[in-house]
Amino acid sequence: MRALVLNTVNKSTTVQDVPNPEPGPKEILVRVRAVALNHVDYMNAVKPLAAQEKRVLGSDFAGEVAQVGEDLVGLDDPRAKVGARVSGFVQGASSVNDRPGAFAEYVAIDYDLTWNIPDKVSFEEAASVSLGAMTAAQGVFERLQLPSPFSETGVSEQRSIREDEPVSVFIYGASSSVGLYAAQLVRLSEKTSDRKIRLIGAASPSKHALLYDAPYSYDLLVDYRDPQWPEAVRKAAGGEGAQYAIDAISQGSTVEQTDSVIKSGGKFAIFRAPAAGNFDIAKLKTKPIFGAVWEALGVEVQYHGGVTIPANTKARAFGAALYKYLGSGVESGQIKLYPNPVRVMPGGLEEIPSDGFGLLSGSFKAVQQDQKGHLGPVSGEKIVYVVS
User: Fold this and answer.
1) Which pLDDT does position 302 carry in this prediction?
2) Number of neighbouring beta carbons within 10 Å of residue 338
3) CA 229, chain centre distance (Å)
4) Closest by alpha carbon to 103, among 48, 58, 38?
5) What class does CATH assign to 132-291?
6) DSSP H helical segments within 138-193, as ranges?
7) Which CATH topology does 2-129+296-386 take?
8) d(CA 211, CA 184)
9) What is the pLDDT of residue 91?
10) 164 to 148, 196, 280: CA distances (angstroms)
11) pLDDT of 19-64, one tens digit each?
C-alpha cells in the first residue's frame, strides 16, 4: 500500500510503498478514504518523536471496513462488518514506541475504537471528528466531570453549586477544532442533566455568527483580541467568574487569561502540559487538569527522556463508550456530533507535506498569495485530503 512515511534521520516525508497491515483478532482493516490533519502530525514530522528510522504519519481517518479479525467473525456489531463506514484515530508518529499511522491506504485498529459514520456525513467530514472530539470529551466529561450522555465517568456537577444557581462554562478558542466539539458536548451535557448551562466563549468576531448558531448555541461570545474580554466574561458569569473553563488552545498566555475568569473553587481543563504549553502552573489560581488524548487507545505511550504513560483501561473504556455513542444514531439517521467545517484539499497523500503541513505551520508562502483558494489562511475548519 501507499503511505506517507516519515524518515526520522533526515526529517523527510515521502509517499512510499509499505506492506499492508494485518488486522489482529479483534481488529478491523480499514480502507482509508479520507484523512484530516492535526497540528500534532505536523509537529512530529518536523521534530520527530519516533525512535524508528521510518514511521507512517497521521492520526485521523475515515473509510470502509475491508477485513475483520478472526475473533470478530459473526460478531453482532455494525463496525465489524465488511463494507461498514467507520472513522477513528491512531497514534501515527506521535510516540517513541511504534504505532500505526493513518496517512495510508489501509490502517488496522481495534473495532471498538471506531464509530459508524451516518449516511448524511461524508468520509471527508467524518475524518475531522475523532481526535478532536475525543480530546474535547476527555476535557468536558473526564476532567470537568460534567454529566455525560454516554458514560458514568462524568456523573455530577460541583457539589458547591446550588440547584438554583446558573452553571457557567467558558471556552477559550471556541472556533478551534477542539473548541467546536467541546461546545457541542457541553450542550449534550445540558440535555443530559436538564440543567441550564450558560455557555461563554472567546473567538474571533468573524466566527461569532457560526458559534451563536446551532449546534454550538453560545449565550455570549467575546473577541479574544479585546484586552477587556476577561472582565466581560466574569460579568456574564455572575461577577465571580465561570464554574468551569476549557482552554482549547492551552498555549502561553491563553492559560493565564482563562484562569483569570474562573470562579474560586472552579474546574479548569487544558490540553497541554506546562512544558509543552510554555506556561507556569505555579502562577495559576486554579490548578488545571490535563492528560494525553492517546490514553483513549489503551496502550502504553512512550516519549523522549524516559517519560512513559502507562496503558489506561479506564481511559480506553471511556473512549470506546464515546465512539459507541457517536455511531448510535446511524440507523435513525441522527448525527450525534456535527463535524468541523472542512477544507478538502486537491491532491492526495503526496500533497500533505507541502500544502497541508505548510498551512499548519503558518509559514507557507502561498498563504499570502492565495487568500481565497485552498491555500488561504485556515480558521475554524479542518484540512482534509482524499486518499482513495
Assistant:
1) 86
2) 15
3) 26
4) 58
5) alpha beta
6) 177-193
7) Quinone Oxidoreductase; Chain A, domain 1 (3.90.180)
8) 10
9) 94
10) 21, 10, 36
11) 999 999 999 999 999 999 999 999 989 988 888 999 999 999 999 9
